[in-house]
Amino acid sequence: MRFDVVSIFPEYLAPLDLSLIGKARTEGILELAVHDLRSYTQDRHRTVDDTPYGGGAGMVMKPEPWAQALTDIAAASPVPDGARPTLIVPSPAGEVFNQKLAYELAEEDHLVFACGRYEGIDERVLEWAADQYTVRPVSLGDYVLNGGEVAVLAMVEAIGRLIPGVVGNPESLVEESHSDGLLEYPVYTKPSNWRDREIPEVLLSGNHAKIAKFRRELQLRRTADRRPDLIEALDATNLSKTERNVLWELGYAVDQGNAVKRPETDAN
Asked: Could you tell me which CATH number the domain at 2-168 has?
């Protein structure tokens, strides 16, 4: 897997040298290069923005520096078997980034991230880039940042940690939040009694089946409380009778493989 990031603030991406992603780069598990967009300008002022056609506030990133950068990056790292690299453009107007999309992108050979600034990148760049890239505008959520760098830091870490060898214990990926459509269960460590707060007794039992059942119930309860939208999006086809009973207690019924909120009169 190769990541390329283009930004006018390459130093913003320095955290990618740290922790598991930095270690994976050092060990050759993944490749990651950060490019300064200003290096692809042609004027002595290294200009990357200009006023918007049609008027309006702010500035728009000029197309030619982006075209030069994206052309060079694609040529330097050709994707095998005639596939196309994927160009990720962080944008509040894009599809929402989630764990499912992270898994999907982790299967790609080459991801290129275009960090926009100001009012964004000239739209023609995305149209032009579609000739050599699979272009995907992606949003972290329904809010606006000053630039794409923060979003790229989050996405590279979320995607990179799914690459085999990056996370030491693969089981960590299976048990965490969103891996199965639910939030992760609460976790505890020593001491078992901390400031008069005991951990759940079942965790000391050594009975792995009971622990798994207990954790699953906590997942359902936490998700229903904090992210009811995930409960309603859950594939409930393979839920056990016990899990369905928990959902019923929480105010949901399983209907044709979906968890649906019961009317208030039924939930009481």
From this structure: 3.40.1280.10
The distance of Cα 77 from the centroid of its chain, to the nearest Å, equals: 23
Beta strand pairing status for 252-255 and 258-261?
A: antiparallel
What span, in angstroms and rounded, lies between the C-alpha atoms of 102 and 85?
16
Phi, psi of 60 (to 5 degrees): -120, 140
Q: What is the DSSP letter of 189?
A: -
Instruction: Report yes or no on whether pTM surpasses 0.70.
Output: yes
Token readout for 111 is 């991801």
pLDDT for 192-247, tens place per residue?
999 999 999 999 999 999 999 999 999 999 999 999 999 999 988 889 999 999 99
Residue 175: per-residue pLDDT: 59
Q: CA 39 → CA 5, 16, 48, distances in Å?
A: 13, 21, 10
- Domain residue spans in the chain? 2-168, 193-261
Answer positive or negative: Cα dihedral of 38, 42, 44, 47.
negative
Length of the chain counted residue by residue: 268
CA atoms within a 13 Å half-sphere pointing along the CA-CB vector of 40:
21
Residue 89 and residue 6: Cα distance in Å, rounded?
10
Residue partners of 257: CB distance under 8 A and separation at least 6: 235, 236, 237
Q: What CA–CA distances, in Å, run from 97 to 154, 158, 224, 258, 265?
A: 10, 10, 21, 23, 36
Topology of the domain comprising 193-261: Trp Operon Repressor; Chain A (1.10.1270)
